[in-house]
Each structure stands twice: as structure tokens, then as C-alpha cells.
Write a structure and sequence with these properties.
Number of strands: 16
Strand order of the largest sheet: 11-7-8-9-13-5-4-15
Distance between the termini: 38 Å
CATH architecture of the largest domain: Distorted Sandwich
CATH class of the largest domain: Mainly Beta
CATH superfamily of the largest domain: Glucose Permease (Domain IIA)
Number of helices: 3
Strand content: 35-45%
CATH topology of the largest domain: Glucose Permease (Domain IIA)
Order of helices and strands: EHHEEEEEEHEEEEEEEEE
Helix content: 10-25%
Number of domains: 2
Radius of gyration: 19 Å
Length: about 220
């Protein structure tokens, strides 16, 4: 199993803090039963942290007519909205909620050039709450395809997600299914698609980043 580079920064520190906490509590209480319980709990948390930063190997089937899922998770919104940050017109919004058990690597939904990116500081409402899309810390990235079609992918921080990372910047080229960002510990991604795109998923369906076809362009 491959570990994401963001995890290589966090995992050693997390392991040290867990071990130090166990030792301090043991010396304060001198109770073997509590110490064994803490050890088991710490091993569980450590395993969860490693699991969170896993990076699965996936074969990407590129298709200019397909919009691929930018993340693993559950489809929580499919609706027509007025997108007021960039497009300023009606768009089809498809939202994916990522729990702490999902892979948090974010992938490019289409191939194209990044022509817009805006990172906004904000609140930390739970990522599955609808208002988190406009009130939470977020980063909107627009991919422009060769035919001029523009797709926005908006990374949104949740209650415990404290860092949104984007590796692709305006002017960069992105290949469909290629990693373009990462969000730590529970979050959400909103896709804003052309209003006439044909949706291929339903509410509560599970998505796999770079694999699930979210919609087909007409």
C-alpha cells in the first residue's frame, strides 16, 4: 500500500503524540489495565491514520465526453444551482461527501488547463451540510477542456478537515484522473457542470475517484 506524501508529514508526528500520551497517562495513574486499554486505542487510531493516507493504484480510462469523480465518497447532492463565484449562470451541481474512511486524494474530473483557482478561508461546518458549500473554507478550481467546456471542482473543508491542498495551479495542464489536490480528515467536493450534462449517478451512490463516471457531456 502506498502512503500519500501528505501522510508522510503527519504520520510520524501522530505516532509520537500517541506514544507520548500513553506513557504520560501510565506514569500518572500507574494502572496497567488503563495502560493496556490506551495501547489498544492508540493502535486503532494509528491504523486509522495510516489507512486515511493510503493511495490506491487505479487504471484511468480517459474519455473527453466523461466527467470522472474527483474523489471517493458518497453522492449527497444532485441539483441545478446558480453558480455565483465564477460562471454566474445555471449549473448542474453534483456533490461528493468524503468520510474519514475514504481516500482523500482529489483527481482531475477532465483533461484541460486550469484557468481559475480561488482559495477562500471560512467556517468549518460538517461537510455533509448543504451550507458548507458556501460558508466553509474552500478552494474552487476550473478546468478548461480543449473544446472550451469548463468544469469547476470545489474542495470544501469539513469540521475536522484543517487543510486543503492543491498541487495544480492556474496555467498548469491536468490529465483526466490525475491527482490535483488533497484534503485532510473528512471533507466534500462540489462539481459544477454544464446544465445540460447527463448525470450517470444517483443520490447516496458511492463514487471512486478517477473511476466513476459522474456525468456525460452532450
Amino acid at each position: 500500500m502506498q502512503i500519500h506524501k501528505e501522510g508522510k508529514k503527519i504520520i510520524p508526528m501522530a505516532f509520537f503524540i500517541l506514544a507520548l500520551t500513553d506513557v504520560i497517562i501510565y506514569f500518572l495513574l500507574r494502572d496497567y489495565h488503563i495502560f493496556y486499554f490506551l495501547m489498544v486505542a492508540s493502535l486503532f487510531v494509528a491504523t486509522l491514520i495510516v489507512f486515511f493516507f493510503r493511495v490506491p493504484k487505479r487504471e484511468i480510462e480517459k474519455n473527453n465526453q466523461h466527467i470522472l469523480a474527483p474523489a471517493d465518497g458518497k453522492i449527497v447532492e444532485i441539483l441545478k444551482v446558480y453558480e455565483k463565484e465564477y460562471f454566474k449562470d445555471e449549473r448542474l451541481q453534483v456533490s461528493i461527501f468524503m468520510s474519514v474512511f475514504n481516500v482523500h486524494q482529489n483527481r482531475s474530473p477532465v483533461s484541460g488547463e486550469i484557468i481559475y483557482q480561488n482559495h477562500i478561508r471560512g467556517a468549518y461546518y460538517p461537510a455533509f451540510v448543504k451550507k458548507s458549500s458556501e460558508l466553509n473554507e474552500r478552494c474552487s478550481t476550473v478546468f478548461k477542456m480543449k473544446d472550451g467546456t469548463e468544469i469547476m471542482s470545489r474542495q470544501i473543508a469539513g469540521t475536522v478537515a484543517q487543510r486543503i491542498v492543491t498541487y495544480k495551479k492556474p496555467g498548469h495542464k491536468a490529465e483526466q484522473g490525475e491527482e490535483y489536490g488533497f484534503i485532510r480528515f473528512g471533507s466534500r467536493i462540489d462539481l459544477f457542470l454544464p446544465a445540460d450534462a447527463e448525470v450517470n449517478v444517483q443520490l447516496h451512490h458511492k463514487s471512486a475517484g478517477g473511476k466513476t463516471v459522474i456525468a456525460t457531456l452532450k
